Amino acid sequence: MSIASEVSTDLLWKHLESICQWERYTGTPGENRAVEYIAGELEALGIDVEIHEFDALISIPGKTSLDILGGAPGQIPAITAVFGASTGEAGVSGDAVYVGETLAPEGPVAGRIVVADRMLSPGRFYAFESAGAIGQVYVNMGYAHEMTVSTVWGSPTPESVGRLPVTPVVTLSREQGQGLIDLVKSRGEVKLHIHAEVDTKWRRTQMPVAAIPPPSGSGEYVLVAGHLDSWQFGANDNGAGDTTLMELARVMHNHRGEFKRGLRVAWWNGHSHGRFSGSTWYADQMFDDLRANCAAYLNIDQPGCRQCTIYRPFCTSDISAWVKDAVSRIGGQETEPAAPRKMADQSFWGVGVPSFSFLPVLPPDAPDLQKDHPDSGFPEYWHNPADTLDKMDRDLLTEHTRLYASALLELCTAGRFPLDPRSTAGVIDEALAGLEALAGSAFDLSPVAGAAARFRKSAEALMEKSDDPDALNRAARRISHALNAVLYTRQGPFDHDPASGAAVMPGLQLLAEYLSAGPESHDGRVLYTRIVRERNRVVAALEEARRIAASV
Ligand SMILES: [Zn+2]
User: Fold this and answer.
1) pTM score
2) How far apart (Å, rounded) are the C-alpha atoms in residues 139 and 487?
3) What are the CB-based long-range contacts (under 8 Å, 24+) for 431-438?
4) Which pLDDT score is estimated for 75?
5) Is 7 within 8 Å of 251 (Cβ atoms)?
6) pLDDT by residue (tens digit) across 197-244?
7) Number of helical (H) and strand (E) elements in the chain, helices listed first
8) 148 Cα to the center of ligand 1, angstroms
9) CA of 299 to the centre of ligand 1 (A)
10) Sequence ranges of the domains in the chain
11) What secondary structure, in 3-state letters, does 421-480 show?
12) What is the pLDDT of residue 71?
């Protein structure tokens, strides 16, 4: 019997209904009840579940309102975003400045309250706060969406703690906020008063991780995970992912006798309320284990809602050929996997673990499509109390779980694990061509081009070998470790980049800033020093990857 046919719609639905009876804010009794439920159900099947307990900086939203002062006073009930500042009783008052859809200040905002169209992003919030805005009001295009406003990835460190927001933020639905925008545009001078309560503190949190080892006793494993915390009762985001993970654990456990490597299933906490604090804690605490044993990481977020009929995969380059093939062969859809983005608990690029997601989304003509970012393929009820069970589609949830189960079984039973460093060479060449076109003669990228060419040759030679799959697997994984940290991070293996922006070879992408600052300027010279070091980092990683490939 194929594993896909073992997926039970009834069990998926039973667990979904159970999980969605609790509001799952991290470190609160609601999330802990869900932890207990997941562990209890899986342990009853004979699956080992470890509940990790640790402290994390967690932020939970409270009562928030926006007052329009002066001529036509009025109070608008509102929501805030977690990690925004609490105003206390006094609140924060100031003159409004309308900034439209801009992502960064184009005029003076210091000492004023920004009123913006569309959803906030942490990078956008940070740009206005850094320019001196004392508060920010975001008027979404449809519903008001709950958000996280911190650019700090996971719990803060001495280096990142200074980036935590220090000013308040308010989000309004279009219905609530259009009048305010009209007023600010027509009257020019409008005084606003923000009252926002945010409960940000270190909390004890619980995070369940199930392990299904292979019969050989090998420590190697594939990691599959999604976030457990939710906004309110969060059915699609991510009760659906949580029940999918439970069903995957059950059906994969039935196939454990076929495993060449094990499966580890994690329900991350703190995805929203700790800005990826759970997966970041795991990356930090399990660093050695992940390096030595983790073959790949699959993230599952918001599957199985109505109208959610297309896959939009993203992945690290090393596993992209297989991801494209799996979505085509098993999912029946032709896709072009994209580079990974700063979402979906992508906390493992520095460790270097190959990472992928199939991400089911809504097609461009779906009625439920989100108004703020229709391109995202996310629904309008995303991060809103309207994300309830009636938005879920039992058949699509089953179909998505079948794809995940078939794909995971392939990975857990593969002799030759499907990493292909030639794809990585292709992604490097493409990114380098873009950088060379940008730099012209203003910055010398030839050391990177030379190292990339040598790496490509050795990767091609490696993939022609077939005699020892274990040796090839080991080499391909070590190449991923060497390259993913420079392809997708600036911080490297032992820290985490800010939670905003994403680019291939982000260190070298500073070239754009360097060129616009002007090579002769002070800022340009400062950037030049940085970019030379980034070039050294990339060249060293490529040389290490080449040596690994040549050593087999
Ligand atoms: Zn989610």
Assistant:
1) 0.97
2) 35
3) 431/504, 431/505, 431/508, 432/505, 435/505, 435/508, 435/509, 435/511, 438/511, 438/512, 438/515
4) 86
5) yes
6) 999 999 999 999 999 999 999 999 999 999 999 999 999 999 999 999
7) 15, 14
8) 12
9) 10
10) 3-55+211-413, 59-201, 421-550
11) HHHHHHHHHHHHHHHHHHHCCCCCCHHHHHHHHHHHHHHHHHHHCCCCHHHHHHHHHHHH
12) 67
Residues, CB-to-ion distance under 5 Å, ligand 1: 237-238, 301
Report pLDDT for 466.
81
User: Is the torsion defined by CA of 152, 154, 160, 164 positive or negative?
Assistant: positive
Q: Measure 189 CA to ligand 1 centroid, in angstroms.
A: 39
Residue 398 CA to ligand 1 centre (angstroms): 18
Residue with tokens 């800005």: 275
Question: Is 3-55+211-413 assigned to CATH 3.55.10.10?
Answer: no
Residue spans of the chain under pLDDT 50: none
Which class in CATH covers the domain with range 59-201? alpha beta
CA–CA separation, 63 and 80 (whole Å): 8
Q: What is the 3-state secondary structure (H, E, C) of 198-236?
A: EEEEEEEEEEEEEEECCCCCCCCEEEEEEECCCCCCCHH
pLDDT at 70: 78
Chain Cα centroid distance, residue 28: 22
CATH architecture of 421-550: Up-down Bundle (1.20)
